[in-house]
Design a protein that fits this description.
Elements (H helix, E strand, L loop, with lengths): L10 E6 L5 H14 L4 E4 L3 H12 L9 E3 L10 E4 L10 E5 L15 E6 L4 H16 L4 E3 L1
Parallel strand pairs: 1-6, 1-7, 2-4, 2-5, 3-4, 5-6
Helix pairs in contact: 1-2
Length: 148
């Protein structure tokens, strides 16, 4: 992905997950997203890990409700959270979480994407390097960036 593929008014977040795994950190971020009234898409190339993430989203405390769909689920446009092995957003998500280096795929996001969140995990050196290159390109084009 290049800086040109990201809408100019989108904020790009870089989450470097050093203290907790993705399956622990992501439910908290998804809950915050839903509380703002936004829809979310979680994109990663690994379908097995996507299924484990789905299980983790159903296992959150009962006061959190993180309704989601993925794969062959009916009516993807109705799900406030959509899990995908590509960069599609059939639910018109305003916030897109990009995991496991999926941001390396060529894709152009539409202007209705408010936030792109790159989730970086320890040990994934290739994904980290490509995220750094994207950060530099976005910084040069004076985009809104947040590093967490």
């Amino acid at each position: 992905m290049t800086p040109d593929a990201i809408p100019t008014d989108s904020t790009v977040f870089f989450f470097h997950l050093q203290r907790q795994p993705l399956e622990t950190a992501l439910p908290k971020l998804l809950l915050k997203t839903l509380k703002r009234g936004w829809r979310a898409a979680v994109c990663m190339p690994d379908s097995g890990r996507l299924a484990r993430l789905s299980e983790a989203l159903w296992a959150v405390p009962h006061e959190w409700i993180l309704p989601h769909g993925f794969g062959e689920a009916s009516y993807p446009e109705r799900h406030p959270i959509w899990l995908a092995t590509d960069l599609a957003r059939p639910n018109a998500a305003e916030v897109v979480f990009l995991c496991h280096g999926i941001w390396r795929h060529e894709h152009v996001f539409s202007a209705d994407v408010r936030r792109l969140c790159l989730m970086l995990e320890p040990g994934d050196l290739d994904a980290t390097q490509s995220a750094r290159a994207l950060w530099q390109g976005l910084q040069e084009s004076q985009r809104i960036l947040v590093k967490i």
